[in-house]
Design a protein that fits this description.
mainly alpha; Arc Repressor Mutant, subunit A; homodimer; 7 helices; 158 residues; 49% helix
Chain lengths: 158, 158
């Protein structure tokens, strides 16, 4: 069970944009340099965040990104969902209705008990992530980190 | 984020063995036929359950499997863990310490706040799965299902 490596990029990109004064934009190139990651690959992730309504902006050479909503309105679950990471990792293929031991359809009117257990665990995971906002993450960062990130990203702005 | 397809096989295999009278054994071939899945591939999963101390038995042509512990002592988390499905899906590569924006080591004495959020969600997932035992799954099955599974698997026993 693995989330894409780019999950970390996405979480940090949104968190760092949320540290800038409201309305500030940063380019994909700035973010790539800030994190030391490949620009074209990061741009693809940023485009997913735009499609998911988390960022606004464009991916062109003069493009810039900003938050599409207040950081208080952005949960970590939404960010993970934007990179296709929030789907239930367990897939029930109704094994109980296959093979020699196949249960009769009339004994399968309720969801498979094992699938239900897996689903409840996934719901607990989602609930945990949906309870944390980007604003809460930023609020917990050391003042030195905030100051440095603002200085670096606003200085290098076009 | 995906669990292996064989997670479903493993959960159902252990659940069906737990439905048999204590001490009964079933072969990998019986289970493969019961579920209509490829025998050699299922055998690999059963071997993992043996290595994890969930089943005892052997994988040979005359091999048989039984529970290594009481079903009250077997959590769903352990079964998923046996097929390498219980590791944290989020990997923190300390992105905050990379690139032009790298935070100073002295500002990173606490775990990354984003990694901590992901870890808490995974802990919630684990806690949910560890709270359900194989015995509870079996106790919730319709009597007709239990009776049928016992009849099929004990009849065909060597």
């Amino acid at each position: 069970m693995k989330l894409p490596e780019t999950s970390e990029w996405v979480l940090h990109s949104v968190a760092v944009i949320a540290q800038l004064p409201a309305g500030s934009t940063v380019s994909g190139a700035q973010l790539a340099e800030h994190f030391g990651v490949p620009g074209p690959y990061l741009s693809k992730q940023l485009a997913k965040l735009v499609r998911a309504g988390i960022l606004t902006g464009s991916t062109g050479p003069r493009g810039g990104f900003r938050l599409a909503r207040e950081p208080e309105q952005l949960s970590i679950l939404e960010l993970i969902g934007a990179v296709d990471g929030a789907a239930d990792p367990y897939v029930c293929r109704e094994l109980r209705q296959q093979g020699r031991g196949a249960a009769r359809p009339e004994d399968c009117t309720r969801p498979c008990a094992l699938a239900a257990v897996m689903r409840r665990a996934h719901d607990a995971w989602r609930e945990s992530l949906s309870g944390v906002t980007v604003a809460q993450i930023v609020a917990g960062l050391p003042a030195e980190v905030l100051e440095k990130n603002r200085r670096l990203l606003l200085q290098s702005a076009r």
